[in-house]
């Protein structure tokens, strides 16, 4: 008898527990609805960048070093820049357009055992040029090139390339500088028509623009070449 009473008590307790603990279906939170008169508007677009003043940008760039303002006066600069780019792209000497960069000291050689070599002092004549080039802000220079692109294109077309763009010529010019072979160490020269030529025929057969780079000396040339490569990357230019 007690056994049945115990069974009934356990069953009742289990039933009560199931009723109290049974899972209730989750109640979804109420969805907040906007009043019908409220319109959802997209966020306003970001403000457009202020237009770039090419002349102001160029003045700022040239003001970074006093030498730049002396070497590259603003008057006629686009025409001169286009001519320099075209000269370098073709391997010609840009000397007629860069008279301000001409060294004041004369070219010197040293003689050893009856042979002439470029005096290291001749390389040092280009130290300032290499230092100024190495200090150029590549991003600022690339920004100036992009902003001045219409003016540069117009100046380049005026050289006799109607419908052409300066971009390809600039890529070739920078590529020529970046890939030029500049020997380290002593460079032997020989007299030739009142001036000196490279004794190594492979060097003497190079384009005038590349020979100018060699005459700067390996240390200075590496600085110029590194900046040319950096500018090519920043502008996304190839060398062909």
Note down, in words, how this protein is organized.
The chain is of the alpha+beta class. It has one domain. The protein is 52% helix and 7% strand. It contains 12 helices and 4 strands. Strands 1-2-3-4 form a 4-stranded antiparallel β-sheet. Strand 3 and strand 4 form a beta hairpin. Helix 4 crosses helix 9 and helix 7 crosses helix 12.
Biggest pleated sheet: 4 strands, antiparallel
Count of DSSP H/I helices = 12
Helix content: 40-55%
Say how many strands there are: 4
Order of helices and strands: HHHHEEHHHHHEEHHH
Note poorly predicted spans.
1-24
Q: What class do helices, strands and sheet pairing give? A: alpha+beta
Q: For the terminal residues, how far apart are their CA atoms? A: 107 Å
| Widest beta sheet: strand line-up | 1-2-3-4
What is the structure about, briefly put?
It contains 12 helices and 4 strands, in the order ααααββαααααββααα.
What's the topology here?
Elements: H1 2-21, H2 54-62, H3 66-71, H4 77-90, E1 109-112, E2 115-118, H5 120-124, H6 127-135, H7 138-147, H8 149-157, H9 166-179, E3 188-192, E4 195-198, H10 201-204, H11 208-215, H12 218-235
Antiparallel strand pairs: 1-2, 2-3, 3-4
Helix pairs in contact: 2-7, 4-8, 4-9, 6-12, 7-12, 9-12
């Amino acid at each position: 008898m007690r056994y049945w009473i115990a069974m009934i008590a356990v069953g009742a307790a289990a039933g009560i527990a199931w009723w109290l603990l049974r899972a209730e279906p989750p109640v979804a939170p109420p969805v907040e609805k906007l009043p019908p008169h409220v319109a959802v508007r997209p966020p306003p677009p970001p403000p457009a960048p202020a237009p770039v003043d090419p002349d102001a940008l160029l003045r700022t760039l040239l003001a970074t070093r006093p030498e730049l303002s002396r070497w590259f006066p603003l008057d006629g600069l686009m025409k001169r820049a286009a001519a320099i780019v075209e000269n370098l792209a073709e391997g010609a000497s840009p000397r007629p357009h860069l008279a301000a960069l001409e060294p004041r000291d004369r070219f010197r050689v040293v003689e050893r055992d009856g042979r002439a070599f470029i005096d290291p002092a001749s390389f040092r004549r280009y130290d300032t040029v290499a230092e100024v080039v190495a200090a150029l802000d590549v991003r600022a220079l690339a920004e100036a090139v992009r902003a001045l692109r219409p003016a540069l294109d117009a100046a380049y077309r005026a050289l006799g390339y109607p419908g052409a763009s300066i971009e390809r010529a600039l890529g070739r010019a920078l590529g020529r500088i970046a890939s030029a072979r500049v020997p380290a160490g002593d460079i032997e020269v020989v007299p030739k028509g009142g001036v000196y030529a490279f004794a190594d025929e492979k060097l003497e057969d190079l384009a005038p623009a590349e020979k100018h780079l060699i005459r700067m000396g390996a240390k200075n040339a590496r600085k110029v070449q590194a900046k040319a490569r950096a500018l090519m990357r920043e502008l996304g230019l190839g060398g062909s």
